[in-house]
Fold each of these.
Amino acid sequence: MNEILAEHEVTTQRIRQLFESAFLPIEIDEDGDLVVRDEGINTFVMLDDDKKLISFFTMWRFREGVGEADRTAFCNDLNDDLILVRFSTRAIPRPRLICDYQFLYEGGILPHQVIYAYRTFHRVCAGAIRRDKDDLIDGD
């Protein structure tokens, strides 16, 4: 896993192989998206060939009745205290906490970098959910 993955080799299938070789539970869902289902966190892995970006994305629903001010305050606190991951909230179709991170693979990338970035993303997101002391996130 120390060889450089050339820019043209960064494909959905190759990324899937990287995760499988790291013993991470990755699959292609019914929409054709790569999804890592790891310890209760479903992370979507997306490639943007035009921008040469790899994106990690996960989300949780807020509990019914949690107001916009509380959602925004929670996101702001996470963004103030945690690094790497961007936290936001969207209310359509139902209020959600959105967590995402992007990085470039232009010019190539080490496979280890992809796996390390995922593991860091996963750890930060899991920590963010543990910060939910007001029980804003829907556990289902």
Note: The beta strands are 26-28, 34-38, 41-48, 53-61, 86-90, 96-104.
Amino acid sequence: MPRRKLTLALSTLALLLLLSAVAQADPLVINSYKQGWYTNTNTNNGVAPLNIPAAANGYFVGAGNGGEVSRNYFVFDLTSVTGVTSAQLRLYLPGYNSSDSDPSETYVLYDVQNQFISGLGSVENALVYGDLGSGTVYAGITVLTPNSYADSFLTIDLNADALAAIQSSSGGLFAIGGAITTLRNTPKQFCCEGLFLNSMGHPAQLLVNGQAIPEPATMLLLATGMGGLLAAKSRRAKP
């Protein structure tokens, strides 16, 4: 094969491979940046002296000892994501974690006000608990029977409102709050009526259909491939 044709073929192949790598970035799996819970007694599991990575916190949601109620949260860093068209939240479910007799619980996801996102887990704020269980609804799911989900993952489809928030948050942080809306009013003497009790060490994941912004090295390779194609075309055009 003539040298010019070989150069053109290799440049074309390199360009196609690079474009394919960018196009096949779907779906993207983004681990939580921070996660945890806040209670109605103004406590949370993200402050010292726990001294564990923020993304390793457990995210129990529901009623605990003496009627203390927890709502959870998840924060994701979207600085490397763009063009999101759909999204799901995937959570680790070690078991139903409920000693209550309810056959099911309804778990609802909400938006989180921007003013609270940066401080989640690192500050105690009595207003955060209320915010995690109110506002714009992103999703709702009914979890059935105590034993059906043991040691598995719960994948929740996020709605159009969540997708719009993700799209507007590209290049920044995106947060989700969660609450069980079917808790009984009677205080619990012993733990628990809830979900995700033993979730510590399992980061929540945001699964998005979209594109990853190419790294600088990838962009350099892409530019080199395009440059090779243009150079080959220019040489072919010369008499």
Note: Helices lie at 3-23, 114-117, 126-132, 160-169, 216-237.
